[in-house]
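Notes, Module 5: Reading structure tokens.

Key idea: the token line is not a picture. It is a compressed description, and you learn to read it the same way you learned to read a sequence, by spotting repeated patterns. We will look at two proteins. The first is printed below with its tokens.
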Amino acid sequence: MTDRVVVVGGDAAGMSAASTAKRRAGDALDVVVVERSRWTSYSACGIPYWVAGDVDGPDGLVARSPSEHRSRGIDVRTAVTATALDLAAREVVVQGEAGEQRIGYDQLVVATGAEPIVPDVPGVDAQGVHGVQTLDDGCRLLESLARDPRRAVVVGGGYIGIEMAEACVRRGLETTLVDQADEPMRTLDPDLGKQVREAMQAMGVRMVMGARVEALESGADGRVSGVVTEVGTYGAEVVVFGIGVQPRVGLARDAGLPIGASGGLRTAASMAVPGQDGLWAAGDCVESWDRIRRDHVHVPLGTHANKQGRVVGLNLSGGREEFAGVLGTAITKVCDLELGRTGLTAAQADELGRDAVSATAETTTRAGYFPGAEPMTVRLTAEPGGLLLGGQIVGRDGSALRIDTVASALWAGLSVADLVALDLAYAPPFSSVWDPVQVAARALLGKLP
């Protein structure tokens, strides 16, 4: 007898689950995916670079189209929106061109993703106001930019905010970034965030920090014309909200599924939803276990979504896999400044009631005498006993990917002394004789009790 798997959501987590399950089980599983947009398996992280003109889109951001998935035996139904989960009847209620329908399932995968956070202030419904989470969001933003606006305001100084601000500047717009924090990139220490602010100012972005958005103004045509903050009003024909995303859990909440403290759907390590037979969840709609914080957090990244989807696909087809957790590792760039971070900062450790010590190394991307050596700052944080807790890197070309060394050490539970002793590669075009991460580790080792 063939079992039916219904997957709600056709991006990273949902299609990874569907593809893995179908590849393993073949005709023993009837896999149906319902996706509210016309796209599947796309890179939302690439949208700022599409807007900037670095990559082609939207099709260029699609890893595998609906037709390609269908050719592999998956029943992908696009432009179909799931409106309810009837757990008692084991059915998903959907709405599409054919009207309302019910799709029965033996196993259900919830992969509904996340949605942009938009502040509850007057005027946010004006034309020309955008969030950036899906390819359709990117298409709508580009339609606004095709109207030849002169000014843009980006609200939010996190990853998406700084990337979108750079994209707007590169398109020739007078660009202002507004954020409540004193410095952008609050996942970094403020002095490292200051480097980001200075780089963005040098690029031509007006940085309005420590300012809360109070309202959006619009003209007689209904299009946005300005952003009102507590420190002033800034004209704009385009506004982009980049203040983060929140789990899209309306369906799950309405169905009575467990929602955690961070707002995401709670799952076991197997990605099964507790107390529900044959029900799984993965991706930006779920919480993940943070191995350093020792708590559940919401970390919406395509890397985690793909891994979690794979775990779901393996387990619903008879496997016994677990998602091992997250560290908060992230990387981005603004102009030629690269940023990387993982684990905890000293301030975050303090908020959790954990003692921590930090040390900073000012070093270079190559041997100091080698042509092209650029400055970089590496900061490491550890417990007084020497257990590594986290790291931050800000520097020029060749800096940020070194955060993966720190992340690997965190994952393995290494001490600062272990990190100093690691056998890392060396050649003058790539590093000083002591790798920059190890330079910081030596400085930290000297500060530990």
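Here is the second protein, with the sequence above and the tokens below, as before.
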Amino acid sequence: MSEQVRVRFAPSPTGDLHLGNVRTALYNWIYARHTKGVFVLRVEDTDKERSTDTYCENLLDIMKWMGLNWDEGPRVGGPYAPYKQSERTSIYEEHLERLKAKNLVYPCYCTEEELELERKRQLGRGHMPKYGGKCKKLTVEERQKLDAAGNTSVLRFIVPPGEILVHDEVRGEVRFPDDQIGDFVLTRSDKSPTYNFTVVIDDALMKITHVIRGEDHLSNTPKQILIYEALGYKPPKFAHLSIIKGADGQKLSKRHGETSVESYKAKGYLPEAFLNYLALLGWAPKTGEILSLEQMAAEFDLTHVGKSGAIFDPVKLHWMGMQYMAKLPLEDLTRALLPYLFEANYCTREQARQKFDWIKGVVDTVRSSMGCYSDIIKETFYFFSDELSFEPAQTEEMKTQKPLLETYEKAFEAITDFNGENFMKAVKETGKSSGLKGKALYHPLRLAITGREDGPELAKVGPLLGKAEVLKRLAVWTKEEIPN
């Protein structure tokens, strides 16, 4: 019987969750569900200066919002608690003593300036920068003198000779020659443990079978394998995901726009759409692009994860959002959008109660253009305000359209029942009397009553605005003084 798959997502609560972090969490989650394994959430909060309880709680809330519920971790517990590194100090100290007993570590007193000078010299010679082992040669007496003089030290792990081979589930065999890795730091000068040390202890004790993470951690893997072997633990299988890139091919960062999950949640993207899009950044499912979490879990396989970096495309994300927005029941969608209308001061809660059916009609008219909830603001402003703004070129164009707009006025004034059918009948009659059709007929009307070059069907827009409002907006261009 094969062992149960156990994977983990181990973020640091030092800021908002990055898109790359979330894709890593998603791939771990769907792999756990695909294999009927266990998904562990562990908080790596050993960075005392940057880690905060607020960031930690936000992180957990975002995971819940996305539906990536964890089987073990904070708030739910589990057999290998605690799941916060800040609460596991005694465990790390115990393992550190085991390495000391085997003489596999030594104190290093080199200053930052000395290390930087050594690094520059190695680069100048065309060598890979690594620690040269200066302090490994110190005698016990020399170390005692340095300690007595108040010199601070870090603890370094002694790297044995020999090539290190990593069998990566995504990248295949990756070899690390022994001349690339110098003795590395296990504890800082304040005695706090480093990432490479704590992550090995936690993954080993929590019986993690697969470590699925970003390729920026690939260079850490040989160091971690050495620690596993030194402590007598079996290393897990590793899978390193390609980075997410911006349109310029560089690693996705703030210069490319929004990169935190919180910002997309605030915009009102549906979590299902958001995760569906992120899943496609590095993985090509066989059953199409639109997939629920359950469908992703059924199909996901690490062997089908790509090695090359995927481009994050906000336009494609918006398109994905549109596919999910279209599936929502109109009543539910309208109620979900009300807070955005309130925040934009488009209407009050009382007005929303009184005109809910009308607002529902507005939402139904524009929903096909919406990829997230906040789109409702830019898509509906002309329904809630007659203060339309025009570019100078648009104003000049509309001045030449006065005869056509006057014809529209007369046709609309004659309508008794101002519904979509009668509205379009008046538009077609205007076309016949003016000899115009297509864009020449429709564009001036759309611009006059909505202030937009494009938008939903006028047959829906006109009746929603109402006869009086349509005539009022046309009058702006047909009266004597046309706005500049």
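Summary for the second protein:
- The first helix runs from residue 19 to 34.
- The chain has four domains: 6-86+244-317, 88-241, 328-373, 392-478.
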